[in-house]
Design brief:
With about 200 residues, this protein is an alpha+beta fold. The protein has two domains: about 120 residues, no CATH class; about 60 residues. It contains four helices and seven strands, in the order H-E-E-E-E-E-H-E-E-H-H. Helix 3 runs antiparallel to helix 4. InterPro entries: Endo/exonu/phosph_ase_sf. This is Endonuclease/exonuclease/phosphatase domain-containing protein.
């Protein structure tokens, strides 16, 4: 296996396989140690279960990729020619995938891996991307603000604040300022309500 790994030319990569579980290496997992770390949780002749941690943001997942010759298909597009009576096997396999809560990974490249009893031995490259960063919640205007005392003065103060730039830039800046003023105004009202409720309980 060392010769195979060296022949790939991936110098910053590390590899794990299930060669200790069987005479032949059926599964070889490689990863870029500059980006992720991988810990093998369980090894079997048919599968590897790994913890994958992204070194960039610290996120981690436990993942199992299942790959093999199942002698069954999920969709008619997964085979060409042959016995047309295979739809019963297709239903059974689809039900199995659904019940085990597995997800078929979208693929690109060669679609068929067998032809006339011959296997193409094409490797599989999986790309694990970190989850997108959480976005700040969008600003929501509460209709009750317009009915509260001091609302018009708050809007006027924000709108009359001095900003620079072209007309669109000034409009954007004033809207941004207004958002801050309204949040501050809402905070004062919330504190006032809390104080009144506390005073009512004490009395």
């Amino acid at each position: 296996m060392a010769r195979v790994e060296a022949g790939l030319g991936l110098h910053s990569w590390q590899f794990e396989s299930n060669i200790t579980q069987c005479n032949l290496c059926r599964i070889l997992v490689g990863w870029d140690t500059r980006k992720i770390s991988v810990t093998v949780i369980h090894s079997d002749p048919q599968w590897l279960t790994c913890d994958v941690k992204c070194l960039l943001d610290g996120t981690s997942i436990r993942t199992t990729f299942i790959y093999g010759d199942f002698n069954a298909i999920i969709s008619f597009r997964d085979r060409k020619g042959g016995d047309p009576r295979w739809h019963n096997h297709m239903d059974d396999f689809s039900n199995c995938v659904a019940q085990t809560e597995l997800i078929q990974i979208p693929v690109s490249g060669l679609h068929f891996t067998w032809h006339n009893g011959r296997q193409d031995n094409s490797p599989i490259l999986l790309s694990l991307s970190p989850p997108p960063p959480r976005q700040k919640p969008r600003f929501k205007f509460l209709n009750l603000w317009a009915e509260q005392e001091g609302y018009e003065d708050t809007v006027k103060a924000a709108w009359e604040s001095e900003v620079w730039g072209n007309p669109i830039s000034r409009l954007t800046s004033k809207l941004h300022n207004l958002k801050g003023y309204l949040k501050l105004h809402h905070g004062h009202l919330t504190n006032s309500i809390s104080d009144k409720a506390r005073a009512a309980k004490e009395n």
